[in-house]
């Protein structure tokens, strides 16, 4: 099976800065992949090469088997892009913006008209078709951008921080749309985000740091691979006394933001043992699994030092 995206030993420089430093990555069709990483990690640069906006310094990028450096025009037929900054023409209507895109991708008039009607309906924008973009809310304008990106029926949608500045309900609606598109059309989605909880929607998370892939895997794999973050969180009548008792019993117990945390690899297996070690009354005990935040900070801190 041809991967939707294959990146091989990619290096990209901006002047003296090595923005992408030897990245290799393969994304299967229909997968949803999140790119995480601190500012300046190289996410946008990587996305710009995948979308043919920038050329690789060395290495190779293929989109559905098409080498983006050899045949960028053909590669672009497979790719829809939603850029970090809004790129709609503010003084044109929603419909006109879509029309220009359709013409840019060589769609004939009848086909363009039909497809524009279809995406406007699909994204709930039919009643806004004649609205000027500058009259739209940020959330609606984003919807128009996603609709535009999908107009030429690409198989891969690339989004660079698509939800930044959008309110939580608009963000949730966008992710629902993308999941439906994947389910109905097998769309492959690659997106960069700084909202760590948005990485939970992905089949695979790729954490980029200093131009390299620092860690990648499914959200569950990344969390399971994290040692030292899972804990039993205990609330007692006297947490200070309980802390001392747990330490005497040999547990790695600490006070943190959640309260008294007992760190252990499989917390659910230690409930009885922890309860036995504490003589003060226990109010509640709960298992805390590692979060995407734990994975992110463990990865970027370790790599950054
Ligand atoms: N046009 C440019 N000219 C010079 N340096 C650049 C240019 N674009 C990016 N860089 C540098 O390349 C590195 C990677 O930047 P890039 O924008 O790809 O990171 P990013 O992970 O997308 O960051 P952010 O989360 O802030 O968008 C950074 O050191 C950045 O300063």
TrEMBL record:
<feature type="domain" description="ABC transporter">
    <location>
        <begin position="5"/>
        <end position="235"/>
    </location>
</feature>
<dbReference type="GO" id="GO:0005524">
    <property type="term" value="F:ATP binding"/>
</dbReference>
<keyword id="KW-0547">Nucleotide-binding</keyword>
<protein>
    <submittedName>
        <fullName>ABC-2 type transport system ATP-binding protein</fullName>
    </submittedName>
</protein>
<dbReference type="InterPro" id="IPR027417">
    <property type="entry name" value="P-loop_NTPase"/>
</dbReference>
<dbReference type="GO" id="GO:0016887">
    <property type="term" value="F:ATP hydrolysis activity"/>
</dbReference>
<dbReference type="InterPro" id="IPR003593">
    <property type="entry name" value="AAA+_ATPase"/>
</dbReference>
<dbReference type="InterPro" id="IPR003439">
    <property type="entry name" value="ABC_transporter-like_ATP-bd"/>
</dbReference>
<dbReference type="Pfam" id="PF00005">
    <property type="entry name" value="ABC_tran"/>
</dbReference>
<keyword id="KW-0067">ATP-binding</keyword>
């Amino acid at each position: 099976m041809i991967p939707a995206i294959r990146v091989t030993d990619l290096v990209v420089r901006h002047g003296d800065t090595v923005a992408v430093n030897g990245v290799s990555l393969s994304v299967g069709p229909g997968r949803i992949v999140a790119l995480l990483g601190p500012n300046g990690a190289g996410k946008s640069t990587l996305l710009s090469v995948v979308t043919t906006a920038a050329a690789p310094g060395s290495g190779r990028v293929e989109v559905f088997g098409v080498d983006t450096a050899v045949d960028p025009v053909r590669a672009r037929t497979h790719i829809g892009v939603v850029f970090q900054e809004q790129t709609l023409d503010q003084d044109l209507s929603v419909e006109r913006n879509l029309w220009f895109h359709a013409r840019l991708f060589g769609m004939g008039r009848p086909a363009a008209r039909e497809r524009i009607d279809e995406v406007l309906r699909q994204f709930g924008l039919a009643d806004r078709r004649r609205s000027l973009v500058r009259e739209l809310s940020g959330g609606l304008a984003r919807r128009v951008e996603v609709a535009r990106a999908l107009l030429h029926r690409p198989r891969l949608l690339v989004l660079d921080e698509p939800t930044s500045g959008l309110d939580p309900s608009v963000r949730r609606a966008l992710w629902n749309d993308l999941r439906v598109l994947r389910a109905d059309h097998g769309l492959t989605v690659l997106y960069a985000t700084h909202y760590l909880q948005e990485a939970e929607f992905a089949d695979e998370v790729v954490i980029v740091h200093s131009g390299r892939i620092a860690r990648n895997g499914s959200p569950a794999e990344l969390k399971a691979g994290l040692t030292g973050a899972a804990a039993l969180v205990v609330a007692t009548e006297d947490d200070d006394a309980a802390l001392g008792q747990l330490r005497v019993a040999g547990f790695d117990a600490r006070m943190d933001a959640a309260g008294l945390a007992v760190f252990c690899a499989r917390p659910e297996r230690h409930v009885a043992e922890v309860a036995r070690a504490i003589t003060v009354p226990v109010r509640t005990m709960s298992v805390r699994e590692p979060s995407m935040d734990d994975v992110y900070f463990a990865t970027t801190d370790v790599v950054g030092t």
